[in-house]
Write a structure and sequence with these properties.
It is a single chain. The protein is an alpha/beta fold. The chain has four domains: 211 residues, Rossmann fold (3-Layer(aba) Sandwich); 199 residues, P-loop containing nucleotide triphosphate hydrolases (Rossmann fold); 65 residues, Arc Repressor Mutant, subunit A; 192 residues, Rossmann fold. 40% of the residues lie in helices and 15% in strands. Strands 3-4-2-5-6-1-7 form a seven-stranded parallel β-sheet, with helices on both faces. A six-stranded parallel β-sheet has the order 8-13-12-9-11-10. The longest helix has 23 residues.
Length: 708
């Protein structure tokens, strides 16, 4: 290509950029045209590492447009999140690109969209990496178009790397797909969050690939870190200082429950905020995806001060004028933090990023690391079960192996299915064992776990760093020439935002945490075939179901949870907890029809702990205590039962109820609740024996791990 032709093409590409941005004077950022040129004219494999907001999507959409205009086939974009896909499709439409996506949110349109793809009516096709795990999609949609694809884009390419902070196993399937594509097809990987170790891993998986790196320094972002003593102090800080922060923004939490709690607290303090996580739902919306899209729009149009979000609001959410990102808890790595805080200040002169470190952070990240990889017992149990069968569905596996469905069974199957060669394959809804001999790679797991522990230590070093915070981040990401930013709290030698909250507000936050009980919903449907002693089948009859109860706290949490944990270990629940539960029942819950007697769930392991507490609670409520439930059979600890089938089976025949019961509504007391199956079964037995409505209540839930 001559210089004149190159200039003409650059001018055409620039016109498309102006059209996409609706800015007639827009021009390329340094490196953007060079990347487009490499893909379109030299058909390179290219990995672009540029900071958030640089415009990586413009590179691949303009390249897709230019290639399509030359007669090339469609561009395939592998993108990890629905929110990211929505933004990408909107950007594509501004360039006149016919973009479509096949994902879990548009299942009813799959047939129409498939026809459009096969008939070459789409310029760009966006899919999630999980689509690559669907053999039918690969066979009927992807393979028929691989030989005519014009460009492959691997967005958020760090997800392909074991070393990446957001490794997605299904990205591994890309390597097999690549082998079926034209050898001279251009490939683009994009990321803002990859150090040298991750880049090397990506290069090895995608093949011989050129790397374009830009500076990761963010001149518009003022950073600060704060260690505050507890959750009450952090909630108080948010209530007092969030209104001072510029514009609108995001408060990141590590768990769904914290997202809900922080959003509720902010609203109680006059700050408009909504929770955003993978299970966010609301009446009036077709599904969780529709509601999350609504939440994104509210923030995008500045109708709320903040979204309080888990990492479900992450890669690809594009709000150029986002004024702040606050972390209620520390993320697990510098790479993850850089990506999240980098949402702020993309197209404005000043934005703020604040990291609030909490005492529970380390415990949460310990859980993340421990559950990141399946253990050998889980793997062997599933492989043995499949060996002994002609294929099993996930539901059938639940009855055979004592493992949780989503957190363990599906996790192990996903892990095994992306191994190469894979010891399991999915055939329709059934999983089958392959002839591949398999041994878990303990050395790889050990190596990755040690690396993640080191990444966590690096986060702690960032929080306590006496030097420029932005330079710390850039150095950790292997930026070639990091410089002091001049506007973080360390460079300024003074806080960007106030470092503390008033004692009065901290007291209010502590009181709020101690009044943050949650609804307790018992089960309505039992596991098929699990009960043989009790006559429970399918849906429990309405007359056997427990009412919606209450749990005072989360185990070990900052409200009452820490005290509950201490007293459980000591073997005696103090009178302060009696008073707290009584206050909650009488002043805030107020169940109707009101309980007229109290009973409890018995235990042979701790025969006096719960009955003693329930007796004192009954006395405080001025109600009679009746020891109506008897433990008649030793069973395994319920917490050791990992799925619905085994939880039900373990309780079958374990309890009996006396014959002379009071007839009115009853308060059913337990100390800990996890799956709620014990309370479900005991409540059904009480109703079966003639009691009135059963109101379950517990001191703490230990189900927090599933909430991460």
């Amino acid at each position: 290509m001559t210089d004149s032709q190159s200039q003409n093409q650059r001018q055409l590409a620039r016109q498309q950029l102006c059209q996409a941005l609706a800015q007639p004077l827009a021009d390329f950022h340094p490196g953007q045209w060079e990347a487009i040129d490499a893909l379109v004219n030299r058909r390179e494999k290219l990995l672009v590492v540029q900071r958030t907001g640089w415009g990586k999507s413009m590179v691949y959409f303009i390249a897709a447009r230019l290639l399509r205009d030359r007669g090339s086939g469609p561009t395939l974009i592998v993108s990890p999140l629905l929110a990211l896909m929505r933004n990408q499709i909107e950007a594509a439409e501004r360039l006149g690109i016919r973009a479509l996506t096949i994902n879990s949110a548009n299942r009813s349109d799959w047939s129409r969209l498939t026809r459009a793809i096969l008939n070459d009516e789409a310029d760009a096709v966006l899919i999630s990496p999980e689509r690559l795990a669907n053999d039918e999609f690969v066979r009927t949609v992807l393979l028929p178009i691989t030989q005519r694809l014009g460009l492959l884009v691997v967005d958020e390419a760090h997800c392909i790397s074991d070393w990446g902070h957001d490794f997605r196993p299904d990205y591994r399937r890309l390597v097999n797909i690549l082998r079926r594509m034209p050898p001279n097809m251009p490939v683009l990987g994009t990321t803002a969050t990859a150090n040298n170790r991750v880049l090397t891993d990506i290069s090895q998986q995608l093949g011989d690939i050129n790397i374009q790196r830009g500076s990761l320094m963010r001149e518009t972002l003022a950073l600060q870190t704060l260690r505050l003593p507890d959750q009450a102090a952090r909630l108080a800080w948010l209530a007092e200082h969030l209104p001072e922060l510029p514009g609108t923004g995001i408060v990141y939490t590590l768990t769904r429950r914290d997202a809900e709690q922080v959003a509720d607290w902010l609203n109680q303090n006059g700050i408009s905020a909504l929770a955003y996580h993978s299970d966010s739902v609301a009446e009036g919306f077709a599904d969780a995806n529709a509601y999350r899209q609504h939440l994104e729009t509210l923030l995008l149009t500045n109708q709320i001060k903040a979204l309080v979000a888990t990492t479900a609001l992450g890669m690809g959410y594009d709000k150029p004028d986002l004024g702040f990102v606050v972390h209620y808890q520390a993320p697990g790595s510098i790479i993850a933090y850089y990506q999240q805080v980098g949402r702020a200040g993309r197209a404005i002169a000043y934005a703020v990023g604040i990291l609030l470190a909490g005492r529970e952070d380390a415990e949460i990240h310990d859980f993340f690391r421990e559950s990141a990889f399946p253990d050998e017992i889980q793997v062997n149990a599933i492989l043995h079960a499949l060996d002994q069968s002609d294929g099993l569905t996930v539901i059938e596996l639940e009855a055979v192996v004592n493992l949780r469905r989503s957190k363990q069974i599906e996790h192990v199957l996903k892990f095994l299915s992306v191994e190469n060669p894979a010891p399991v394959i999915k055939d329709g809804s059934r999983w089958r064992r392959t002839p591949v001999a398999y041994r878990l790679d303990h050395e790889r797991i050990r190596r990755l776990t040690l690396q993640r522990e080191q990444e966590w230590r690096e986060v702690q070093a960032y929080i306590d760093s006496p030097d420029c915070l932005m330079r710390f981040l850039a150095t950790a990401l292997d930026d070639e020439n990091p410089q002091p930013c001049g506007q973080c709290a360390r460079c300024l030698r003074q806080p960007v935002v106030g470092e503390s909250a008033s004692p009065m507000r901290v007291v209010q936050a502590a009181r709020y945490l101690r009044r943050s009980e949650l609804a307790l919903e018992c089960k309505k449907q039992v596991a098929n075939g699990a009960f043989t002693v009790y006559p429970f089948r399918g849906n429990l009859a309405a007359c056997l179901r427990a009412e919606t109860g209450r749990v005072l706290s989360y185990w070990g949490d900052a409200g009452w949870g820490r005290r509950v944990a201490e007293d459980k270990r000591a073997g005696y629940f103090c009178d302060e907890l009696v008073e707290a539960l009584a206050e909650m029942i009488q002043q805030r819950w107020c169940p109707q029809p009101a309980p007229v007697w109290v009973t409890c769930v018995p235990s042979r392991l701790h025969p006096n702990l719960v009955p003693d507490f329930a007796c004192r609670l009954a006395a405080r409520l001025q109600l009679p205590f009746v020891s109506a439930v008897i433990k008649v059979q030793n069973n395994q600890p319920q917490k050791s039962q990992q799925n619905r089938y085994h939880q039900c089976r373990n309780l079958d025949g374990a309890f009996a109820v006396g014959t002379a019961l009071p007839t009115g509504p009853v308060l059913l007391v337990d100390d800990m609740v996890d799956s709620t199956w014990t309370l479900t079964v005991v409540a059904a037995l009480l109703r079966q024996a003639g009691s009135g409505p059963v109101w379950p209540v517990a001191l703490a839930t230990t189900a927090g791990g599933g909430d991460y």
